[in-house]
Amino acid sequence: MADHRQPWAERTVEVPPGDGSGWPPLAPSRGPEFHRGVAQVGRRGPTPLETTQEYGGQPAPWHAEQSVDEPRPPARQRFRQLRRGGEWTWIGGLFAFICWGIWTVSVRGGNFTTPAVAFVVVLCVAAGVFTLSRLLGRVVIERGLGRQRRSAWVAHLATGVFLAAAGVAYLGQTEWVVDAWNWLRGLN
Q1: What DSSP designation does 112 have?
Q2: Distance of CA 120 to the CA centre of its chain
Q3: Residue ranges per domain, the chain?
Q4: Pick from 12, 27, 67, 176: CA 20 to 30 A from residue 153's CA?
Q5: pLDDT below 70 — which residues of the chain?
Q6: pTM score > 0.85 for this model?
Q7: Alpha-carbon distance 174 to 99, whole Å?
Q8: How many CA atoms lie within 13 A of 14 on its CB side?
C-alpha cells in the first residue's frame, strides 16, 4: 500500500491481474446480458439491499431516487395531492384581499390600476413561494429522506403565511387602521 505522506506523483497503484488486454476484468454485476458498446435501456438500478451491501451497511445516496421504470401517478392524483392543505392558502389569500380592499378604499382617489397591479404582484410572489416550497420539499423529503409526500399542506401553509403578512403590510399603510392600533395600544 502506498504511503500517504509521499507526494502524489511518487505513489504507485496496484492493478489486479487481467486477461492481458490491458482492460480490467468485467465486474461481477455485469452478467451475460452485458455487451460492450450497447446501452441497457430500461434496466433498473440496484435495489436498496444491493446498495446497502456495497456500502458496508449504509444505504447508498441514490437508492431513494425514482427509477425510470416506475410509473408516475396519474395527473388527477397529482392534482388532488396539490389541493390537500389548500385551505391555508385560501385563508391567507382572503385575508390579503380584504386588507388590500381596505387599503384601496382608504387611498381615496387616484386610479384603480396601481393598487390592482400591486395585488397581482403579491399573488405572483405567493405563487413563487408555493413553487419554491414544493421544490424544497421535493429535494429534502423525497430525495434526501426517501419519503413520499402525500399532500402539499406545508407549501400551502408557507403561502398562506406570506399572504397574511402581505395583508398586514397593506393594513400598515392604511392611516386610520394605524391610528386605531396606536389608540388601542395606548389603553394599556
Answers
A1: S
A2: 24
A3: 26-71, 75-186
A4: 67
A5: 1-71, 188
A6: no
A7: 9
A8: 5
76-98 confidence digits (pLDDT tens) = 877 777 788 888 999 999 999 99
> What are all long-range contacts of 145-152, with beta carbons under 8 Å and residues at least 24 apart?
145/64, 146/63, 146/64, 149/81, 150/81, 150/84, 151/81, 151/84, 151/85, 152/81, 152/82, 152/83, 152/84, 152/85, 152/86
CA–CA dist 82, 152 (Å, integer): 5
Closest CA to 92 of 152, 165, 169: 165
Q: Quick check: 102 and 169 in contact, CB under 8 A?
A: no
Three-state SS string over 3-16 comes to: CCCCCHHHCCCCCC
**Amino acid at site 31:** G
CA distances from 121 to 114, 128, 165 (A): 11, 11, 14
Please tell me the distance from the alpha carbon of residue 72 to that of residue 78, in angstroms, as a whole number: 9
Three cell numbers, residue 180 = 386605531
User: DSSP letter at 33?
Assistant: T
Alpha carbon distance 108, 103 (integer Å): 9
Residue of 126, 134, 132, 108 whose CA lies nearest to 169: 126
Cβ-based neighbour number of residue 73 at 10 Å: 11
